[in-house]
């Protein structure tokens, strides 16, 4: 990464933050003002630079949002769960929700439509689909299962972050955690039932 110097009103020379520092400032600003009020102009003001200086690090707001999505959803080094496919999928969905909850409007940010460019993120997604195929689902079924679980996690989190009482008290958080786990269990039960039914169909002798 490189640094850049620019001039702000008053002809004071300012060293623009490195790319990761700009990114961290954007995440801090997101936590303070929310996604709707997050603008490159406001971010530049926070850093004390001209808005154009930011484009040396992020060529567009979409590029900045993509980097923010990567930062919010990035693996924090927690060891992945091992065991049955459904337990691993449950663990992945729970950790995903926890990451979204660390930032104001984290779930809405991820739902903006931008997708991480990191190869590791794509590889992780494909590994999860391959893991779910262990249930007996075919490729299309496994993709639908993973999409459904994580769409549920994102939608649930969008709803709870939009509540007027967010962030919740410890008691409210425990209640919402329980509700999330209940819904997730229902989805996983449906996936298991579907996988078993399809396996039974494949096992039936051909007339």
TrEMBL record:
PROSITE patterns: HTH_TETR_1, HTH_TETR_2. It holds the Pfam family TetR_N. It comes from the Bacteria. Residues 16-76 form the HTH tetR-type domain. Keywords: DNA-binding, Repressor, Transcription, Transcription regulation. This is TetR family transcriptional regulator. Residues 39-58 bind DNA. InterPro entries: DNA-bd_HTH_TetR-type_CS, Homeodomain-like_sf, HTH-type_TetR-like_transc_reg, HTH_TetR, Repressor_TetR_C, Tet_transcr_reg_TetR, Tet_transcr_reg_TetR-rel_C_sf. Transmembrane segments: none annotated. The keyword Transcription regulation applies. The keyword Transcription regulation applies. It comes from Actinocatenispora sera. One of its GO terms (molecular function) is DNA-binding transcription factor activity. GO terms for biological process: negative regulation of DNA-templated transcription; response to antibiotic.
